[in-house]
Automatic annotation (TrEMBL):
Single GO BP term: response to oxidative stress
Name of the protein in question: 2-oxoacid:acceptor oxidoreductase subunit alpha
Pyruvate flavodoxin/ferredoxin oxidoreductase pyrimidine binding domain ranges (all copies): 264-428
Native organism taxonomy: Bacteria, Pseudomonadati, Bacteroidota, Bacteroidia, Bacteroidales
Coiled coil regions, renumbered to chain: none
Pyruvate/ketoisovalerate oxidoreductase catalytic domain span: 22-211
Organism whose genome encodes this protein: Phocaeicola barnesiae
Keywords, comma-separated and alphabetical: Oxidoreductase
Pfam families documented for this protein: PFOR_II, POR, POR_N
Membrane-spanning segments: none
CDD domains the record matches: TPP_PYR_PFOR_IOR-alpha_like
A Gene Ontology molecular function term of the record: oxidoreductase activity, acting on the aldehyde or oxo group of donors
């Protein structure tokens, strides 16, 4: 053991916590993220957990992982590979080693590497490192034994003691990266405030892990420090995931519009946390209803909208299929409604806990009849707040249902978020009827400039009316089957959505404006595509990025931007849905494609290699 530890300064580092789904790896990873964010580092996280409710202990299918990338400057992704891997058992080592860099440090709990544990993970040899060909630096710690010794006087039962193992691993990682352990203590005491004995036990073990590293130097050659070099905008920051940011964005929009927020929903992975978060805020006037099924959740939201609330329904791809009839009811009645689709792997039940972008065409066209809806795609966990706010603003001001696409990667992933000042956000002004309209108003009387019908909330004197799913006369609002009227109403609904483009920001191009290759993407792949662009530009390859947040309608300068570049590659986590949509909207457009449907985020190096190959083609 060295007399003095060498401390190496790094610009960024990636840590991956892994173990059984009951080992608390998500909590350990989240706490390390919060501790790092508190110290001023930028962060990006990626929880990667199994779809099994509870896989057999020690099995390969039951491994839960949490990866966090911390940096001294801006961090766009959770990282391709990790610098440190915490593997709490052989199954974690076997399934997660592929995410290690060649020089990565591996931390293991030697107490969980018995012959029986190795057999559960289907190892053939007694030495798993030899069998996997691992030559990395390995920190071997008897974590289970040390947790038991640390808490032998605590009075806790054995099961409760074993649940603290994740905190020992966290303490050791905090030592390795010179993190402030007192921040971790505060987080634990806040989390277990109602169970002080559990809080005290976890705090003891957290410090024990930290001291184990400090006293033994953990058999590693050096520890590391990731200083904060990036000057962030002054303000209060927190670590937030996309689902929570979405919920906050909805509440902010309701506050700004002066409306009650209503969520009609049905639980579905990975969208349920939005329902859980909003249910905590009854004191803010939020109403949440967990309905008996998906269509009931959406139909109840349509009813709430008719009654004058800011109405939202949340789901994932399979739920959108079931909601589609009620979504169309909002289309034909021209009522504001926000439909949030947290995309996951499909088709059918597919990969419930994994991420894809395969619902784009479903959002655009997955309903019967001509059914135009604005479609927005959030680009990051923190952008989910702004995207949700914008979706509400468009829905309320243009009297239309709006689809907000997020995905499992950004919904569960987190980043450092500056708490916003709501005064800086634009006003939300629904087009309510005014008393002077009473003598000539009909339910589908429209603003001539925007094509938006006026909103008469039930109970408004002199504006009693009914609307429904049957086609209505544009003039009287009565049921109509006249061919010319139906054609007109179809046109009016489509034109209203297209006119929203007048209010949207123009499509921006980042990177080298005179690029040889324009990268195009949408939604949650922004960070990976931006990182790939940065890497290529550092290599002297002139590259730019145009990333779509607004998909229907497209920004008004979309065709102008895309026609400037000789080579364009559309990268998306589907088989080419955005590329096909752009070809349909912009005649004669030649696009290269990069498509992956793996349920995992893009790997930046794979993007760089693919884009380089396209640029080198004659």
């Amino acid at each position: 053991m060295a007399e003095e530890m060498i401390v190496k300064e790094l610009d960024n580092v990636v840590v991956r916590f892994s173990g059984d789904s009951g080992d608390g790896m998500q909590l350990a990873g989240n706490m390390f993220s919060n501790i790092s964010a508190t110290e001023g580092n930028d962060i990006s996280t990626f929880p990667d957990y199994p779809a099994d409710i509870r896989a057999p202990q020690g099995s390969l299918t039951g491994v839960s992982g949490f990866q966090v990338h911390i940096g001294s400057g801006k961090v766009y992704t959770p990282g391709d590979k990790c610098d440190v891997l915490v593997a709490m058992n052989p199954a974690a080592l076997k399934t997660q080693y592929k995410f290690c860099k060649p020089q990565a440090v591996i931390i293991i709990d030697t107490d969980s590497f018995t012959k029986r544990d190795l057999e559960k993970a289907k190892f053939q040899l007694d030495n798993p490192f030899s069998e996997l060909g691992i030559k990395n630096e390995v920190v071997e710690a008897a974590i289970t034994t040390m947790c038991k010794e640390c808490l032998k006087e605590s009075g806790l039962d054995n099961k409760s003691i074993l649940r603290t193992k994740n905190m020992f691993a966290l303490g050791l990682v905090c030592w390795l990266f010179q993190r402030d352990i007192k921040v971790g203590e505060k987080l634990l005491r806040d989390k277990f405030a109602k169970k002080p004995e559990i809080a005290e036990a976890n705090v003891q073990v957290l410090y024990a892990g930290y001291q184990f590293g400090a006293n033994t130097h953990a058999s590693v050659s050096m520890s590391y420090r990731v200083p904060c070099k990036d000057q962030k905008r002054p303000g209060r920051y927190m670590d937030i995931n996309g689902n929570k940011a979405t919920a906050y964005g909805l509440m902010a929009a309701a506050e700004k519009a002066g409306l009650q927020l209503y969520l009609g929903s049905y639980p579905i992975t990975p969208a349920t946390d939005i329902l859980h978060e909003l249910a905590k805020h009854k004191s803010l006037g939020v109403k949440t209803v967990q309905c008996e099924d998906e269509i009931a959740g959406c139909a109840s939201a349509v009813g709430a909208s008719f009654a004058g609330a800011l109405a939202v329904t949340t789901t994932s791809g399979p739920g959108v299929c079931l909601k589609s009839e009620a979504m169309n009811l909002a289309v034909i009645t021209e009522l504001p409604l926000v439909i949030i689709n947290v995309q996951r792997g499909g088709p059918s039940t597919g990969l419930p806990t994994k991420s894809e972008q395969t619902d784009l065409l479903q959002a655009l066209y997955g309903r019967n009849g001509e059914s135009p809806m604005p479609v927005i795609a959030a680009t990051s966990p923190t952008d989910c707040f702004d995207a949700a706010y914008t979706a509400c603003k468009i829905a309320l001001e243009h009297m239309t249902p709006v689809v907000l696409l997020t995905d499992a990667y950004i919904a569960n992933g987190s980043a450092a978020w500056r708490l916003p000042d709501l005064a800086e956000y634009p006003d939300i002004c629904p087009p309510y009827v005014t008393p002077d309209m009473a003598s000539y108003w009909t339910p589908f009387l429209r603003n001539h400039e925007t094509g938006v019908r006026y909103w008469a909330v039930p109970g408004t004197e002199s504006f009693m009316h009914r609307i429904g799913g049957l086609e209505k006369s544009s003039e009287t609002g009565a049921i109509s089957t006249e061919p010319e009227n139906h054609h007109l109403m179809t046109q009016l609904r489509a034109e209203k959505v297209q006119k929203i483009a007048d209010t949207l920001p123009l499509l921006e191009v980042e990177g080298d404006k005179d690029a040889d290759l324009l990268i195009v993407g949408f939604g949650g792949t922004y960070g990976h595509l931006h990182s790939a662009m940065d890497t290529l530009n550092k290599q002297g390859r002139k590259t730019a990025l145009a990333h779509f947040r607004y998909i229907n309608p497209l920004p008004k300068n979309t065709a102008e931007v895309l026609r400037k570049y000789k080579k364009i590659v559309v990268a998306e986590q589907n088989m080419g849905q955005l590329a096909g949509y752009l070809r349909m909207k912009i005649e004669g457009l030649h696009l290269h494609q990069f498509n992956q449907v793996k349920g995992q985020p893009f790997v930046v190096q794979e993007l760089v290699d693919a884009f380089t190959k396209i640029m080198d083609e004659k």
